[in-house]
Design a protein that fits this description.
five-stranded parallel beta sheet, Rossmann fold, alpha/beta, single chain, 540 residues, globular, seven-stranded mixed beta sheet
Length: 540
């Protein structure tokens, strides 16, 4: 307990010092930026960071500074208690708990310190539009008695408010199958009311600014998803961003950042130097030496122990089943074949029972139990509810275990995944991979990805019966090309300007000169991408 309070005090001190530093640099940016009468670029992020600087807040801030220092006007759409309930501010154990708006707005004011007014159509207006919340009584009345199912598909004035709010609700509750209880209905109602308020405010903001482009965080949580939807309906270009695959990197795209659309030229092949670079990364990855968004999942990766090997020796073949976390499997673009990951697991269990000579290893993702973000609908729970572990040919690897997935792949007949990155890595290792959900890497032929439930089952049964599985050579080639692009072309480094904070999932500003920011290759890529329509890719 003492350590907890010590860490909390340390975080508070670091946060205050960081915000003072940010405000100081922000004022220097304001002093140095040149006046411009061109159309502004809009920046909006209400769903990343509350009182600490998140990595995505850092990317948002530095990119907007680079635009302003280049003489490109920026207009910020900033939340000032602008939602009755927001995603990050929601307390899933107490949905009615007051929102932490005060500390959030305080941090935003540090980010936007000293921002000058814009010149639009010959007039001057503020470049920071602080929007508040306005409850619509007609909308509130219409949704007051709706069920979860009805709320999820609810439209209002041609806006699919229910669908726009679902990803954020599932993320914060860490549940895919939402309970139709009053707490869940209450949250979804408030999200819908808040999304509608954001929609009206953002529409008016676009009328006033007439921007050349809109840059938003993620595009999945309802504030940014609503803004993106409205901007795209007007024909405006919308860029979304997320954390990149490398530490302290960002990913910017015209598409959905979480879907990771990448255009790789057909003629691109890795040369010797690029192959060595990728192999060096993979060697570390296969030892568990990597982080994602500041989280190190495999600090103590263990090999397959003697108990497991003795059990496996009693079976004809091994098939690992790699699952994923709720938010990654609940995003709208993931479930193109099955309704959800658990629907896939139910089908898989039926086949497991028909194949007692095969050892199936069901692997839960370690992120299911992440501190402060643990899942409530889990693979561990599914295993218990379905009695899957009682099957003699099933081994369940809980999220607490650090068993090496890579050693498991090496001993397997083939590999099953929903949409986890391990599928891409297994393809690189030469394994046959049967994928059931749309993943980042399925945009290229990297795995076996049947497009109907019946075909997934048929392919699974075919693989189980086959003496050998022939894997197309293009799978491994495309997997390596895709991963190389993710690591070294799309992941834009910000490590010269940001470093991990007390919590590694948060960041703080380094000391640097603004001229260094202007010379940053990453910022040049973002500027060229937004202003010139180029791909957001680093040069080789």
């Amino acid at each position: 307990m003492k350590e907890f309070f010590t860490q909390r005090i340390k975080r508070g001190i670091v946060r205050r010092l960081n915000n003072l530093k940010i405000a100081s640099v922000a004022r220097e940016v304001a002093r140095r930026e040149s006046q411009s009468n061109g159309a502004p670029v809009v920046f909006f992020k209400a769903s990343t960071g509350i009182d600490d600087l998140s990595w995505n807040s850092g990317f948002h801030l530095l990119a907007s500074w680079a635009f302003r220092l280049q003489g490109i006007p920026v207009a910020y759409f900033a939340c000032n208690a602008g939602m009755s309930k927001c995603v990050l501010g929601t307390n899933r154990d107490n949905p009615h708990k007051e929102m932490p708006c005060k500390s959030c707005v305080m941090q935003s004011k540090a980010l936007y310190a000293g921002v000058p007014k814009l010149t639009v159509d010959g007039g001057r207006q503020t470049a920071v539009n602080w929007f508040d919340f306005q409850r619509d009584s007609e909308l509130a009345s219409r949704i007051s008695s709706l069920s979860i199912s009805e709320l999820s598909t609810f439209h209002f004035h041609d806006l699919p408010l229910g669908a726009l709010c679902l990803p954020g609700l599932r993320w914060v509750l860490r549940i895919h199958h939402l309970n139709d209880d009053e707490n869940t209905r209450y949250l979804l109602r408030e999200y819908i009311l808040s999304a509608w308020s954001v929609a009206r405010k953002f529409s008016k903001f676009l009328d006033q600014t007439d921007p050349r482009a809109v840059v938003v965080f993620n595009g999945q949580f309802f504030p940014e998803a609503t803004a993106r939807y409205i901007a795209q309906k007007r024909g405006l270009r919308v860029i979304t961003h997320e954390v990149g695959l490398q530490p302290a990197t960002a990913y910017f795209t015209d598409g959905e950042a979480t879907a990771y659309p990448i255009h790789i030229p057909d003629e691109f092949e890795l040369n010797d130097e690029q192959n060595k670079r990728l192999d060096a990364y993979l060697a570390k990855r296969f030892q568990g030496d990597f982080t994602m968004a500041g989280i190190k999942f495999w600090a103590d990766m263990k090999g397959l122990d003697e108990t497991f090997l003795q059990k496996a020796a009693g079976f004809r073949q091994i098939v690992p089943i790699f699952t994923n976390v709720i938010f990654d499997t609940s995003q709208p673009h993931a479930n193109t074949v099955f309704e959800d990951m658990f629907d896939w697991l139910d089908m898989t269990l039926e086949v497991i029972k028909e194949n007692p000579d095969t050892l199936f290893v069901i692997r839960a993702h370690p992120d299911e139990l992440r501190v402060r973000k643990s899942s409530r609908e889990t693979v561990e729970g599914w295993v218990a509810n379905r009695g899957a572990e009682k099957e003699a040919n099933v081994v369940f690897v809980s999220p607490r275990e650090t068993l090496s997935s890579y050693e498991l792949i090496q001993k397997s007949k083939f590999v099953m995944v929903y949409n986890s990155t391990i599928g891409l890595e297994a393809s690189i290792m030469g394994a046959a991979v049967l994928c059931a959900g749309r993943a980042r890497f399925t945009q290229y032929p990297t795995v076996f990805f049947p497009q109907t439930i019946e075909d997934v089952r048929r392919k699974m049964e075919e693989f189980l019966a086959a003496e050998n599985i022939e894997v197309p050579a293009e799978f491994k080639r495309n997997a390596r090309r895709f991963l190389y692009y993710q690591l070294y072309r799309t992941s834009l480094p910000f490590g010269d300007f940001l470093e991990p904070s007390v919590r590694t999932t948060q960041t703080k500003l380094k000391s640097f000169e603004l001229d260094e920011l202007m010379q940053s290759e990453s910022l040049k890529v973002i500027l060229d991408g937004v202003l010139g329509g180029k791909d957001f890719l680093l040069d080789e």
